[in-house]
Write a structure and sequence with these properties.
3-stranded antiparallel beta sheet; alpha+beta; 2 helices
């Protein structure tokens, strides 16, 4: 994998799974198998490993990401016009943690 990722689009995600026995120590020597998860993108040709604090947090993150990806996909498939307002707003470009300008006093 010669590409460096800084971001991945939600619609490019093909799989979100716990690492458990899926990752070899040759490719990821420092992975903690009980708290890491794998995101495959672009049909499985690229994969990224992320680490959570513990197994419970890992499962919460996996479930949340799967829910967001499936919600976006289903809204697009059924032609729901609110998908643009829900997923693609000007606030999406702001750094996480910042209060949107509209809500600041």
């Amino acid at each position: 994998n010669a590409l460096t990722f800084h971001a991945v689009d939600l619609l490019d995600i093909s799989k979100i799974i716990p690492v458990d026995g899926m990752v070899t120590r040759d490719r990821y020597p420092f992975v903690k198998r009980n708290s890491c998860f794998l995101i495959e993108a672009f049909g499985g040709s690229h994969s990224m490993v992320f680490e959570a604090r513990d197994e419970t947090e890992r499962q919460d993150i996996i479930d949340g990401l799967k829910l967001v990806v499936s919600r976006l996909g289903s809204k697009i498939i059924v032609g729901d016009g609110t998908v643009l307002n829900e997923f693609f707003t000007p606030f999406g470009a702001q750094v996480p943690g910042d209060i949107p300008l509209v809500l600041q006093p």
